[in-house]
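Translate sequence into structure tokens.
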Amino acid sequence: MRYGKPWSRFFRDLYQQICDDNVFNGAAALGFYLTLSIFPP
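Result follows.
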């Protein structure tokens, strides 16, 4: 008897949650502001 999800389903669900929560946009903004804090214009 198998428990849990298959790996393909797990990664598909993980990607969907990441897209729904805009994690990529938050990470890009964080990197941008971190870069500006180290090298101010």
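Note: The mean pLDDT is 92.
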